[in-house]
Amino acid sequence: MITPDYNINEAERLLALQNTELLDTPPEERFDRITRLARRFFAVETCLLTLVDSDRQWFKSKVGLEENQTSRDISFCGHTILDDRVLAVADALQDARFSANPLVTNAPHIRFYAGAPVRGPGGLPIGSLCIFDPSPRDFTDEQERELRDFADMVEYEIARIDKADEQSKQMLAIIENMIDGVITINDIGIIRTFSRGAEHIFGYTSDEMVGFNVNNLINSSHLEHHYNFTSNFTGAIKSNVIRSYQELEALHKDGTVFPIELGLAEVEQLGKINFIGIVRDITQRKKGENEIHQLAFYDALTLLPNRRLLLDRLQQIIANCARQNRYAALLFLDLDNFKNLNDSSGHNKGDLLLCQVAARLIKSVRQGDTVSRLGGDEFVVVIEGLSSDRHEAANQAEDAAVKICVTLAQEFDLGSFSYNGSASIGVTIFNSSRSSLEDLLKQADMAMYKAKASGRNSVHFFDPQMQVAVSLRAAMQQDLYEALRMQQFQVHYQKQVGQHGQLIGVEALLRWAHPNKGFISPAQFIPLAEETGLIVPIGEWVLREACQTLAHWASDPAKANLTIAVNISVVQFNKKDIVSTVLNALNASGAKPHNLKLEITESLLASDVENVKVKMLELQRHGVTFSIDDFGTGYSSLFYLKQLPIHQLKIDQSFVRDIIDSPNDQAIAQAVITLAVAMQLNVIAEGVETEAQRIMLQDLGCGAYQGYLFGKPCALQDLFI
Q1: Which H helix or E strand runs over 700?
Q2: b (16+ CB within 10 A) / e for 668-705
Q3: What DSSP state is assigned to residue 3?
Q4: pLDDT tens-digit map of 452-468
Q5: At what angle do helices 390-408 and 347-364 cross, to 10 degrees?
Q6: How many CB atoms are closer than 10 A to CB 281?
Q7: What angle do CA 203, 206, 212 make, to 5 degrees?
Q8: Greatest CA span in the chain, whole angstroms?
C-alpha cells in the first residue's frame, strides 16, 4: 500500500486557509475549493462532492473526472450515503462489495476510495464527499477523522447558504414592503430590479422599467445641468459628478415633477459592479420645510419678508454698498390713522388694506429692492444701488419715497366701501457698516415720527440731531424710573387768591429735584411721563400728598376752607380705577372731598365724553369739584360745558400775558368770563404777574387769580411765610 505524504500541520494550514479565503466567494467556487483542498490534503487523484437533493444539484463539484466517469463514482458515494458513516476501501478490486461490479472493475482510476457523508440541517445525509486514487492504500482512523472534518466544512457552507437564502427571502420581503423604492442598476444605468415601493413612487410597473435606463425617471433639467446616468457610475461617483447621496427632481409616469432623495450603494456581484438605489419621495417633507421657512422668514398676512429676513438682506445690502461704494436708503413707513379703520370697520378690513398696501409697495419699487412688513401697519422698504454721491442719493431716495406716498394716497377698494389713506415715511441713507442694523431702523423710525408730527402723509429724513434728542429722552426716561423709586419728586404749591387778595386755595405743582441736574422743568418730563405711563403712579403720589395736606389744614381754622387743585392727566383719568384712586386717597388721609379740586384739560373731554361724564358725576357725588385747565386753548366746545359737572373755568396764561396791549386777548378773556357767569361757573385767571393785569381782569369780571404777582410755587413750609 502507498502512504500519502501527509502531516497535521499542513492539514491545519489548509483548513485555516479555506476559512479565510472562502468567506466572500460564490457557492460553486467555495465547494470547488473544498474538493481541491481535500484532493491536495490527502494526495489523491480525484475528489468528488455529490449532493442528492435535487434542489442542490448545482452544488455538484468534481476534480479529475471525465463526464462519463461520474456514474461509476456514484456507486461508492451511494454506499457512503446509505450507510451514513465514513467508508474507506483500501483496494476496490479486492473488496467483495465492489469487485463484482463492472462499473468499478472497468474504472482504472478507482482502486482506493474513502468517503464521508454530508448531512443536511435536519441531520440526515444528503450527499457525500469522496476521494479516489488509482493506487491502493491504507486509510487510518486519523485520516478518517480528517475526511470527516472536510465533510463538516461542506455542511457548514450548506448551512451558511441556507441561512443566506433565508435572509435573502426576508430581505426581499422587507424590500417589497418598504415605502421607499429600491432599484438596482448596472454601471451604465440600466435598471435590473424595480420594487413595489418604486412602482408606487414613480407610477411605473416593474415590467415597464426593467431593462430601461434610469434616466427616464429623472427630470431632464437635472440631466442637462448636472449629470447623465448613462455615464460610467463608478467613475462618476469617484469624481463626485454623481454623489452617493443627493436630492433630485424626479419624473412621474404622468409627467409630474417631484422631489426625491436618492442614496446609491455600490456592490460587486459575481465580479460585476452594480448599484442599489434607495429612493424616497420627499414631497411632503419639502412642503413642510417650505412652510417652516415661510413662517420663519415671511409675514403670514402679506407674505412679505418679516423682520428676521429684512435684517439678513440688510446685512447683505450694507456689504454691497461698501464693496460698490454706493448708497442705499431705508424707508420706514407707518400708515396714517390705521387704528381708526380697524376700530370702525373691523380687523378684516384692516388686514385687507395691509395686503393691498403690500401689493402697491412691491409695484412702486424695483425688482431688486426689498419690501418688508415689521408688524401692525409698519413697513420697511430698502432701496439699493443709489448714487455714490450722498446728496444725489438722498434725492433719489426722496423721489422713491414721494412716489410711494402718492401711490398709497390713491383710493383703496375694501369691498363694501372705498378708503382713502396715507402714509408717513422716515428715510435714512447709508453706504457702510458704521451703523448697526438696529441703528438704521431706529434712525428711519425717528424720521417717520418726525413726518407724523409735521402733519402726516409726508416724507422726512433722519437728522443726527434726532439721535441726540432720542438719547437724551431715553436717559431721562431711565431717570424718571429712578426718581420714582428714590422719591426725588416734590409737591410745590402756588397761591390762588380772591377778589380782595384773600387766599382761597392753592394749586399743587409737581417738581423734580434731580440729584445731579437740579430741578428739571415739568415741561421736559411731564410729556415723557404721560407717554411712558409713569404719570399714573406719579399722579397718584401727588394726589395722596395733596390730600394729606388738606387733612392737616382741616385742624387749623385759618386753613380749613382752603382748596387744593390737583392736575389729573388724560392718561391718569382714563384709567378704569380713577374714581376709586381719588376716593381712596381722600379716605386714607381723612381730607374733606369738597376741598379737593381736580383740574382736567379740554383734550380729555374730547376723547370719550360719555365715559368721562360717568366718572366725573361719581366723584361729584362724593363732593369733589372740577376745573377746566387752560380753557380756550383746545377743544373749546360748549357741548360738554352743559353736560359735565364743571365748577370752574381757568383762563390760560397765554391770554393773560398780553391782555394789556392785545385787544384779541382782552376779547377772549371777556368771552370766557361772560360764558362762566352765564353758566354760573367760577372763573380764575392764571399767569397774573402785574397789578395792571389783575385790575383789567377784575374790570372784565374775573374774581380769582393765580400767578407770580401773588407768589411763586414753593414748598409747603414756605407757603405762609
Answers
A1: helix 691-700
A2: bbbebbebbeeeebbbbbbbbeeeebbebbeebebbbb
A3: P
A4: 887 888 888 887 775 56
A5: 140
A6: 20
A7: 95
A8: 165
Per the DSSP assignment, residues forming a β-bridge with 508 are 493, 566
Measured CA to CA, the distance from residue 507 to residue 510 in angstroms comes to: 10
Amino acid (one-letter) located at 17? L
- pLDDT value of residue 75: 62
In sequence order, the 6+-apart residues with CB closer than 8 A to the CB of 648 are: 597, 625, 626, 627, 628, 676, 681, 682, 683, 684
d(CA 687, CA 708): 7
DSSP 217: G
Q: Is pTM, for the whole model, over 0.70?
A: no
Q: Which residues of the chain have pLDDT under 70?
A: 1-27, 52-75, 103, 105, 164-168, 171, 173-175, 220-245, 269-271, 433, 466-471, 606-607, 632-637, 639
Helix (H, G, I), strand (E, B) or coil at 460: strand
What end-to-end distance do the CA atoms of the chain give, in Å?
151
CB-side neighbour CA atoms (13 Å) of 518: 1
In tens, the pLDDT along 644-669 reads 899 999 999 999 999 999 999 999 99
Q: List C-alpha distances in Å: 534 to 480, 629, 657.
A: 8, 21, 32
| pLDDT tens-digit readout, 17-68 | 444 444 455 667 778 888 888 888 999 988 888 876 544 443 444 444 444 3
Please give the Cα distance from 366 to 503 (Å, whole number): 71
- pLDDT of 454: 79
Per-residue burial over 185-199, b = 16 or more CB atoms within 10 Å of its CB, e = otherwise: bbbebbbebbbbbbb
Q: How many CB atoms lie within 10 A of CB 74?
A: 16
The separation between CA 12 and the C-alpha centre of its own chain, rounded to angstroms, equals 67
Q: Can you say whether the dihedral through the CA atoms of 593, 597, 598, 602 is positive or negative?
A: positive
Chain position carrying cell 376745573: 627
Instruction: For residue 120, give the C-alpha cell.
Output: 443536511
Which pLDDT does position 391 carry in this prediction? 84
Count of beta carbons in the 10 Å neighbourhood of residue 124: 11
Tell me the C-alpha distance between 159 and 121, whole Å.
Answer: 7
Instruction: Please provide the DSSP assignment of 178-202 as one string.
Output: -SSEEEEEETTSBEEEE-HHHHHHH
Phi, then psi, of 294 in degrees rounded to 5 = -65, -45
**CB neighbours of residue 314 within 10 Å:** 21
Residue the block writes with cell 423721489: 399
Partners of 496 in beta bridges: 505, 706
Handedness of CA 293, 294, 298, 299 (dihedral sign): negative
Residues with Cβ within 8 Å of residue 448, at least 6 apart in sequence:
332, 333, 334, 424, 425, 426, 460
| Beta carbons of 97 and 58 less than 8 angstroms apart | no
In terms of Cβ atoms closer than 10 Å to its own Cβ (0-12, 13-18, 19+), residue 291 is: exposed
Cβ distance 138 to 90 under 8 Å?
A: yes
